[in-house]
Amino acid sequence: MITEEILKSVFKPHNLKWRTAITKVEPNRLITRGYLQEELVGNTSFSDMVYLLVKGKMPSKSESKMLESVLVSFCDHGVTPPSTQSARIMASTGSPLHACLAGGLLAFGKNHAGAIENSMHLLQEGVARTPPEESLDDTARILVDEFMSRQEKIPGFGHRYHNADPRAPRLMELAREMECLGRHGELALSIESLLHKSKNIRMNIDGANAGILSDLGFDWRLGSGIFMIGRLPGILAHTYEEISRESPFRKFFHIEEIYYDGKE
Amino acid sequence: MITEEILKSVFKPHNLKWRTAITKVEPNRLITRGYLQEELVGNTSFSDMVYLLVKGKMPSKSESKMLESVLVSFCDHGVTPPSTQSARIMASTGSPLHACLAGGLLAFGKNHAGAIENSMHLLQEGVARTPPEESLDDTARILVDEFMSRQEKIPGFGHRYHNADPRAPRLMELAREMECLGRHGELALSIESLLHKSKNIRMNIDGANAGILSDLGFDWRLGSGIFMIGRLPGILAHTYEEISRESPFRKFFHIEEIYYDGKE
Amino acid sequence: MITEEILKSVFKPHNLKWRTAITKVEPNRLITRGYLQEELVGNTSFSDMVYLLVKGKMPSKSESKMLESVLVSFCDHGVTPPSTQSARIMASTGSPLHACLAGGLLAFGKNHAGAIENSMHLLQEGVARTPPEESLDDTARILVDEFMSRQEKIPGFGHRYHNADPRAPRLMELAREMECLGRHGELALSIESLLHKSKNIRMNIDGANAGILSDLGFDWRLGSGIFMIGRLPGILAHTYEEISRESPFRKFFHIEEIYYDGKE
Amino acid sequence: MITEEILKSVFKPHNLKWRTAITKVEPNRLITRGYLQEELVGNTSFSDMVYLLVKGKMPSKSESKMLESVLVSFCDHGVTPPSTQSARIMASTGSPLHACLAGGLLAFGKNHAGAIENSMHLLQEGVARTPPEESLDDTARILVDEFMSRQEKIPGFGHRYHNADPRAPRLMELAREMECLGRHGELALSIESLLHKSKNIRMNIDGANAGILSDLGFDWRLGSGIFMIGRLPGILAHTYEEISRESPFRKFFHIEEIYYDGKE
Hints:
The structure is a homotetramer of 264-residue chains. Helix content of chain A is 55%, strand content 5%. By secondary structure, chain A is mostly helical. Chain A has a 3-stranded antiparallel sheet with strand order 2-3-4. In chain A, helix 4 packs across helix 12 and helix 9 runs parallel beside helix 11. Chain A is flat and about 55 Å long. The termini of chain A are far apart. Chains in contact: A-B, A-C, A-D, B-C, B-D, C-D. At the C-D interface, strand 1, strand 2, strand 3, helix 2 and helix 3 of C face strand 1, strand 2, strand 3, helix 2 and helix 3 of D.
């Protein structure tokens, strides 16, 4: 006989697919990572929530403060970033707000947002391969030498607009103050010291945040995600500015089009 | 003779296009809404930054705290929202992180995120049309009657999963505590009171945040943008969970496809 | 007793959701709008497929030829369209191909792609409101007068780069040759005649295609979709050109940033 | 003295950035890859245009016919593909058409659309490394052995819904008829022959099209782009079906949410 139990077991396999550890949704009850949402609202900061959602547990007070500084540091870079330009171009065509924000994020390709992930990856690999009792200076030297021999830029160092990115030292200073500076941040500082001496290149915001986020325990694959959370308010502000202060469907550049020889 | 000045004037018209009041970018100097970024980092909260970027000035302490609560309240709703489902489906296909987050935002259509904007629009219109010395109860009644006569739902009230959304009263309570409850929030409460008596329908999270954001002075066209800022960490958490805990390119549903009569 | 039938009926309601009249998928058998796909491949043109998929039946030979001309006419407009600019900016950031194409489409806002939909809407309304035995000249005059009194541009007429869009007369000529010119195309021609006399404004590609697609029986809400199908190859070509011929993460413009007074 | 020439030379460097070999835009004149657009419209097929835009020259008649068959073969796969599901979910939220199509494309991740690119890459490498006078059977064997030893699937062979994808043999048959079968298609057939004998696995649509597109001279990095051009009409049809035949913001599945242990 087909019992209710069998019925359920037949029914279940097809529905086992959607599962999550993030939020449990019940009628009139939303539990995120073990906390009732109505208790989170008003008692936790936004950076607490980011940490809780992604890492599954509450940060310490200083971890939360540190993450907040990281998020704030990503806020905006004027009209120079491709993500901002894309969002404004779309806004100008009359695309709705959510499509403009989405379009902005689509410009976070590896050349734009990849630096922070690559920098985190590098620092996490570097620290993982250095025995905990050993200094990171040797690791830094090996890494710098390798990149130099390949004539590649080390992700997280140097900037196309700034030769001394003012956000990086500020972030490292805060990391020290909040006691959030660990092995990854140290490795980043060690690399900077070598690059500064030999090539006058300094750590940029990606390098600083890569060290800090790694010390906060974030998987390098999440780096550009944190960047996007921090930057979305800036993209919103630009989209809104475009809509409210510029004329629709304006031309963004004087195009003096060069029609070059069309061989594939 | 063509002087430097003429040269500049000829040159400029084509480049006047990219302008912004948000961030001034100079070598080694980033000034956002009048503040040096290195001074913002570490001294301002994330919600300060959202307010500053979008509204062009710093919020008061309680405004900032209130906005933070709003952002936190949007954090996550499990795997039920279309935006979360879209992001996870894309993640499963191997789309990179930034494309999944963008894809999530593309599902903030008017039926999903429109409620908060429509609710803000309604409250802002309602308050604007009520002389400041008059009670909002009459306005509430007129609005409720009009929607009921059209057999339409009032945006910001009722929920398809919850009949008493636990986030809404918590937010209104905080608004009261932080002295952020103004005419818009009052109108929302007035509408709820009528709807609750007549139809047992309560304010949902969108209605509560619509009232609060309106009282904080946000243009209704920004409502879904604030929602997306608050939700992006949740979408990131789901995307990461999909990548790290589920098998790639999994089937999301048992599709028992119905092939109905194909007349257009 | 719970029989297999009951079991199925219990099971079904949750799975009835995904249904389609477009393609029936069975193991080793794909039936699109009633045709086996292996019989469609090699026997039908691309425009046949577009028509079949969207409208649920095969077009006549001349309808198919006409639709193909419409699709070809949308092919490309150099680097001037916002959609092309967006896709190239994203490609330059290292975003993958599918994200660049998606990003290109996000710039089809109402100011960019809306013209064809608005033009179709206008022509379809105009024709629907004119009794079939009556001339469309009066309708044309009423429409032109109304837009002029509102000082608005009529969608489908005039162009910001061309004062005589060469694609429009060619398309109308083909429509005549292929006997695809119906009431909607006639109304468009009638409007053009009035605008040309009074303001030297001519039909543009959107106006021509709006007339033709309406005469082919397409719902105006599909207009921008047909445009996007026609334009996607151009966006692909530009994305590929960007990747293969330009340096990554290049600056797209000399930004002479104007930092204007930041009042909201 | 600053002459007009100097003026221009000063002016130019900042505007040299936007250049293209695809379409030259002049007032009332659009020249694509050397052809006036008004002469292309009506005289060239859609697949001619795809080939011309991407490869910079006109295809032969049989190349064009072959490419058209490839495009048609990608048309639709019911509601099973993640791209179709994403587009429909977005349409249901009320996202506008262009955002739904964009969202559909964002689901063309490497697990969904990557197969055709990987298959093209494999065949192009395989052929490039085999001296032209040598048989491809040895190359096929080496490739199959390598993938088997790594316990990986060979891209372009096997399908999760079909064990004998009906589109693949049809495409290969057409390639033979149209004399478009070259070394890449032969290598694909050779691999299939080995896989079929040893594991009863057959070529799928991606494998067939990978061989054909490679023989038509397409760079493997364009594979998913061609796929997306072919599939966009299907996504449009589904989006339109969702809008016109389903209720807005419907639930797509019965979510029996499993809240698993939330350790990161």
